[in-house]
Amino acid sequence: VLDGDRLDSAVGDWVVIAASGHSPSQLVLYNADHRWLIGADLAFPGAAPYLECGWTEDPFAEHLAALKRCAELPISLLLPGHGRPDDDPRQRLVGACVLMERFAADVLAELGSADRTAYEIAVGLLDADVDADSCQARLSTVICVLEHFERLGTVRSRNDATGVRRFARVRQAS
Question: pTM of the predicted model, to two decimals?
Fold first, then answer.
């Protein structure tokens, strides 16, 4: 199925909405008759999601665009991939946008003014007692955010003498 396709069901048509970012092939389904959204992993309550790096050009921007696109729909019920159904879906989707933007600001703050690796930034943003899966997920998401800012010209990356990729803020001309 592709973005915009319609799927017939006993409860009405579902419209397919591409929602990449979390994963490159993520889709959500919207039923306009009932104003339901099957949201997959689009909006985690209270946490920035895992973004899968390396499969699309800008997972961070794609995920944020999908959140905003879905937040504009008239939705009465969000059926998320994780957690209970949410009867305040607009708040959850808008809140997820805010969390994403706040996480991106935290990545830039953790980057600071020195050359740093994505790993160093990810570790700086984690609690000391997190599990290995959370570390891996945070690292992937940090890379997506850094590469997003690199596309915008805010951050640059280079490989150091040992081949390790380091990121730094781009100094703006005054």
Answer: 0.91
